[in-house]
Predict the structure of Nitroreductase domain-containing protein.
Amino acid sequence: MTGAEYCGGAKGVDTNGYPVETTGNAVLDTLEHRSSTRAFARDDNDRPVAVTDEQRAAILHAASRAPSAGAMMMYSIVSIREHATLDRLADLCDHQPMIAKAPWALIFVVDYAKWIDLFEHVGCFEPEFVERTGKAPRRAPGLGDFAIAAQDAVIAAQNAVVAAEALGLGSCYIGDIVENAEEVAELLDLPPYTMPLSMLIVGTPRKERPAIAHPVVNLVHEERYCRADAATMDAQVAEMDAMFRPHAREVGERVMDIYTRKHTSPFMAEMSRSMEWWFKNWLGK
Ligand SMILES: Cc1cc2nc3c(=O)[nH]c(=O)nc-3n(C[C@H](O)[C@H](O)[C@H](O)COP(=O)(O)O)c2cc1C
């Protein structure tokens, strides 16, 4: 079953009444009808309906087919099905119980440890190798390595999202995986030169999930970046408030909601604290 078939009930509009076009192109329709899944179907024993071996293999294969800088695959995927681990992650990721109720989680770890190990394994750090090649001796990964490795990891995660959708499954990113760095590093046995940047929960959606609209005003810039003027910001605010209805009562309510609930939240402060820890870990400090 494709995502488009699964979401056939969208009936041409999303939750905000925006037209959702079905093109007949399987990939475009899967992208168009995807939405995040936060509630998963349960079986007769009140356990989350499992993702089958075939589905897991297909999703992991799709992830591995993602573009990768130099085909270096600078990420690792930690696949988690044990309930105790999901429970712990639910707690560590800003107390989101839906994580414990998912049958499967995937953590996309930005990973340079595997390359450091390989360099060592084939002798790149040996003095004779350094002398013969004239290359610099051993160094830890830097921010340049991070820039490409992080893209590898996130692109692979998104391939998994699309593959899950195409199989009739649902998924949701969990950005809070970068919080509580010390505990997460211990829970997952993460070594230096790694960072768990992306997490997905995956499973059978409990009910149909119509796509929600995404704001697009001030998104695409022609040729040069163009900072929004007051008129553009008014249009942005109006678009977001329209999407936020029936909650939005005053102009700018959606922006204020983001400011109070996200920008100034304790979870964002914890994320920033933890990211400093993860960057030190990445740099081998
Ligand atoms: C980097 C990232 C982190 C996210 N973290 C969470 C999260 O921790 N909890 C959650 O419920 N949704 C999370 N989401 C899902 C977004 O809230 C969701 O994508 C957004 O509201 C748009 O809805 P849609 O995916 O259904 O189109 C995350 C999405 C991204 C891309």
